[in-house]
């Protein structure tokens, strides 16, 4: 893709903070759409224009989106990693109710292309390998199942937008700014690291830098009307992952008995690799957790 105007909603989140400098460095004109411009110093510092806009404020979105060639939705509302409680319902509402406002604003502003962040957990299949065609079957009405249902509802709105769309389903983020691995190491050193259940469940990770690079590749190549899983090459069971963290922290191995926060998911990234010409720099947790 030649130099374009790319509007990014949720630009001050960790994903946006890794994505914006990469887009600016490639010569794109980047607009950071944020609720509070005063918090967008990093976006402005890397050369992005800062516009005030909220996912529930259609007029502000239309004004900020006017003239953009592509709009990217990274907006989330999630509690910080490591909290035992959190308002995940706010994120579900953002996906279910905010996405239609966002899509409508893009359409009204004449933006021809939209790229939507989603989650690879929508393809969760326990210990079985899964890809973009795998359908998650919820077993209980828990927070994770509700989050997955909200993500699928969000994708449905994008599919029905009438615009040229792409969806990137990311694995579990880790890396600088995400808070996940920092929380794991803090807990390990304090002797409080716990496995979800017995640790046999699977998780597909993606380093936040790899997620940002895959997004740049998607904007460059533009896989029209395509949904792609962006994850590392080697899913891992929690007992191996957190056991590695404990060993790296010179701490005692994690013990079983922690709560389940995520479904077990073990996804393939083959379609993204083939379609985007992308591959993760951090092929697994051992490379990405080096410190």
Provide a compact summary of the structure.
The chain is an alpha/beta fold and 291 residues long. 38% of the residues lie in helices and 20% in strands.
Overview of the structural elements:
This protein has 291 residues and is an alpha/beta fold. Helix content is 38%, strand content 20%. It has helices spanning 14-25, 41-45, 58-65, 88-109, 143-159, 180-189, 208-221, 238-248, 270-276, 285-288, and strands at 5-9, 29-34, 49-52, 70-73, 113-119, 129-130, 164-170, 172-174, 194-196, 202-203, 205-207, 226-230, 236-237, 255-258, 266-267. The strands form five sheets. A seven-stranded parallel β-sheet has the order 3-2-1-4-5-7-12, with helices on both faces. It has a two-stranded parallel sheet with strand order 6-15. A two-stranded parallel ribbon has the order 8-11. The longest helix is centred in the middle third of the chain and has 22 residues, at 88-109. The protein is globular and about 55 Å long. The two termini are 35 Å apart. The mean pLDDT is 94.
Helix/strand structural class: alpha/beta
Mean pLDDT: 94
Strands of the widest sheet, in order across it, are 3-2-1-4-5-7-12
Discrete helix count: 10
- Tell me the number of strands: 15
The share of residues in extended strands comes to: 15-25%
Low-confidence stretches: none
The radius of gyration over CA amounts to 19 Å
> What is the first-to-last residue Cα distance?
35 Å
Question: From N to C, what is the helix and strand string?
Answer: EHEHEHEHEEHEEHEEEHEEHEEHH
Largest sheet: 7 strands, parallel
């Amino acid at each position: 893709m030649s130099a374009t105007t790319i509007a990014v909603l949720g630009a001050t989140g960790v994903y946006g903070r890794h994505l914006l400098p990469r887009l600016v460095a490639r010569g794109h004109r980047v607009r950071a759409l944020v609720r509070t411009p005063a918090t967008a110093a990093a976006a402005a510092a890397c050369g992005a224009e800062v516009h005030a806009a909220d996912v529930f404020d259609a007029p502000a979105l239309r004004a900020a989106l006017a003239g953009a060639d592509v709009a990217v939705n990274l907006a989330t509302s999630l509690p910080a990693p490591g909290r035992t409680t959190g308002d995940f319902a706010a994120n579900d509402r953002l996906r279910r109710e905010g996405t239609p406002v966002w899509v409508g604003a893009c359409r009204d502003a004449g933006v021809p292309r939209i790229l939507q962040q989603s989650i690879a957990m929508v393809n969760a299949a326990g210990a079985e390998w899964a890809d973009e065609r795998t359908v998650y079957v919820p077993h209980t009405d828990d927070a994770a199942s509700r989050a997955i249902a909200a993500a699928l509802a969000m994708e449905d709105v994008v599919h029905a937008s009438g615009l040229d769309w792409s969806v990137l389903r990311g694995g579990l983020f880790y890396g600088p700014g995400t808070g996940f691995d920092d929380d794991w190491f803090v807990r390990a050193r304090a002797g409080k690291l716990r496995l979800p259940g017995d640790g046999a469940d699977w998780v597909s990770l993606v380093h936040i830098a790899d997620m940002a690079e895959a997004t740049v590749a998607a904007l460059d190549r533009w896989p029209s009307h395509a949904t792609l899983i962006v994850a590392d090459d080697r899913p891992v069971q929690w007992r191996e992952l957190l056991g590695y963290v404990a060993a790296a922290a010179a701490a005692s191995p994690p013990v079983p008995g922690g709560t389940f926060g995520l479904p077990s998911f073990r996804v393939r990234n083959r379609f993204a690799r083939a379609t985007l010409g992308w591959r993760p720099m951090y092929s697994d947790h051992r490379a990405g957790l080096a410190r």
